[in-house]
Amino acid sequence: MILPILIHPDPRLKARADEIGTPGPEHRKLADDMLATMYDAPGIGLAAPQIGVMQRIFVMDCVKEEGAAPRPIVLIDPVIEWSSDDVNTYEEGCLSIPEQYADVERPAEVEVSWTDLDGNRHSERFDGLWATCAQHEIDHLDGKLFIDYLKPLKRQMITRKMQKLKREKARA
């Protein structure tokens, strides 16, 4: 099921999500709905707080190559275990801040550990777009948005645009 995505500013997007611990069957349904919502948007990552669920779970699939098989990953209670000293700058966007993009500098590589839907622990080193996406989504779980990395004036300008967009949607 495609779920509505919260638009900034919304207090839920600034709050820390709760640990899940042992996933249950409801998390499989949540993950399926989150993946459907992410692909429909279209996006490469979606964190539960973006759909108003205050739990530490996100989905991502950064496969962009034409004809390549998708690689959806569901990460429950993810933790960044290691970050590289090298950094990358990507132009980031966010499904909760539609049509707004800005360059954000983050570690080029990260090692992330997480629990899967069957309760198994995983650890993987991500680089490139995958590393950026994982960090962006973990930020969501901590109540942080990509615009929080921007200078105050730029952040305020984007926030005002989102407030205007929300007012227009409310009138429609």
What fraction of the residues are assigned to beta strands by DSSP? 25-35%
The CATH class, by name, is Alpha Beta
Strand order of the largest sheet: 1-2-3-6-7
What is the overall shape? globular
User: Helix amount, in percent?
Assistant: 25-40%
Q: Average pLDDT, to the nearest integer?
A: 96
Quick one: biggest sheet? 5 strands, antiparallel
Number of helices: 3
State the CATH superfamily name: Peptide deformylase
| DSSP strand count | 7
SSE succession: HEEEEEEEHH
Uncertain stretches of 5 or more adjacent residues: none
Characterization of this structure:
By secondary structure, this protein is an alpha+beta fold. Helices cover 29% and strands 30% of the residues. The chain has helices at 25-40, 128-141, 152-171; strands at 45-47, 57-60, 73-83, 87-94, 97-107, 109-115, 121-127. The strands form 2 sheets. A 5-stranded antiparallel beta sheet has the order 1-2-3-6-7, with helices on both faces. A two-stranded antiparallel sheet has the order 4-5. The mean pLDDT is 96.
